[in-house]
Design a protein that fits this description.
About 25% of the residues lie in helices and about 35% in strands. It is α+β, with helices and mostly antiparallel strands and about 160 residues long. The chain has a single domain, classed as 2-Layer Sandwich (TATA-Binding Protein). A hairpin with a 2-residue loop joins strand 2 and strand 3. It is globular and about 45 Å long.
């Protein structure tokens, strides 16, 4: 008869940890995408904390730049990924309002342009459909001084 060798307690513990970790990736089916199938979620890490980017779009750093100094922010940030252009439009209509951006206008003809402003900054969101994906360009910069003065002066 063959004698069984005892299993070390640390090996049993390691096996239990691996099994539990594997179970943590099982979906319960109650994530946000299942609750709102047509809605996009914002990414957690943003270049500008008050300009959201939908999850699933990846940054194109070789085509982007940003500068921030003494309260002045300038940037052109490019992203690409699989997304529906209409969903991206709805994402920005909802999300930018949460950060106190005002939608100035929306131009839709193939490429979509959304112009936002607030106090002394403007933000232009460009959504260019490319098959089943989009190229998103975020342009952020200060308003011209004449636009700031005009906005502060009373309408006659």
């Amino acid at each position: 008869m063959k004698k069984l060798t005892p299993v070390a307690p640390s090996a049993v513990f390691a096996l239990a940890v691996v099994m539990l970790a594997g179970c943590s990736t099982i979906s319960t089916g109650t994530d946000n995408k299942n609750l709102n199938p047509g809605m996009l979620e914002p990414q957690a890490l943003l270049k500008f904390s008050d300009v959201p980017v939908p999850v699933g779009l990846r940054s194109l750093p070789e085509q982007s730049y940003s500068f921030e100094s003494a309260g002045v922010r300038v940037g052109v940030l490019k992203y690409q990924g699989k997304a529906n252009a209409d969903q991206v439009i709805n994402f920005y209509k909802e999300q930018m309002a949460m950060y106190n951006w005002n939608l100035v206008n929306l131009i839709e003809y193939g490429q979509r342009l959304m112009n936002f402003d607030r106090d002394n900054e403007t933000c232009i969101i460009s959504i260019e459909p490319k098959g089943s994906s989009v190229i998103l360009t975020i342009s952020l910069g200060p308003k011209s001084q004449s636009a700031i003065k005009k906005a502060k002066s009373p309408v006659k």
